[in-house]
Give the backbone structure.
Amino acid sequence: MTDAAGLVARTKEFLAAHPPATTAPEDFLEARFDAGLAWVHYPEGLGGLGAPRALQAVVDAELAAADAPPAVGPSLNGIGLGMAAPTILAFGTEEQKQRFLRPLWLGEEIWCQLFSEPGAGSDLAALGTRAVRDGGDWVVTGQKVWTSGAHNARFAILIARTDPDLPKHRGITYFLCDMTDPGVEVRPLRQITGEAEFNEVFLTEVRIPDAHRLGAVGDGWKVAQTTLMNERVAIGGMRMPREGGMIGPVSAAWRERPELRTRDLHHRLVGLWVEAEVARLTGERLRQQLVAGHPGPEGSGMKLSFARLAQEISGLEVELLGEEGLLYDEWTMRRPETVDFLGREAGYRYLRAKGNSIEGGTSEVLLNIVAERVLGLPAEPRTDKDIAWKDLSR
């Protein structure tokens, strides 16, 4: 099953045994996972076949052609699919993989990310949430912020400080936190869009069993790097067709509304269209590189490009539409399950895109990553690398 022809044959056999037209969607997805067609590069028994990662596209094409029900979309469980799952696969015990991967892929358990804190956003390693060992449990107390989808999540990936006597990048441990446990409080954060897709999460003596620790004690920063690299690839390297994403609506408005055109807007639109296409093709190349191994710092460059283009394109769209671009449907406080960039009006796209330069790593931090790890430029002087976290000024 390690070649395209074998996977096509296997997928056709699966579809014949589970016709999408007559099989309940939940039953189809369960059978797909058990057949190893969920994510083919995962091991057998965990939704995969141990096949090359690139062959997932072959399976997806066959299923799409048969009008098969899609997996629970990344828009609802993107953190689970794009961040938690690959990290659990890389660092989890066999028991953890068996426990978490199947319900995650089926969408039975939604995930969120408890990383950023009020005093540790861009400088994530400065986090202060504490986890103290108490027998077979860890008792966690602290505050997390900008937590997407926490109000819908059953589980969270969490990093906390387990040894304040070590420098800030050490003494951090990675956990899987049950969001329904006592001591977990989720509060909405209302955004400029009027919605509250983000949250702040307060952890008050939350007990996490040591069996839900991911990786070794003190190795949390290493584990978190796998999560963050996958996050940036998921945000910046999404597969899409030509004129997919933010460039689509403004291109359509340009073609359909000739009365809005000006020479200056035409020049700027063409430039952004070319940049969007370059970014799309670069994302394709990045996904091909992932076939050979784990995501690297190149994903930071893609995420940077995504944020800048989303903001510039949405700004151009509002300018093109004039007064119409300033319209907004409503400012009612809502707690959406998904972020719908393309299903809303231009004003929403313009406002929501402002968050792209913060989520998934701030643009300033990503510029440092690209400079140091991709371009090989000298690192900025850091005087706090070898100082115990408890002795840092805050």
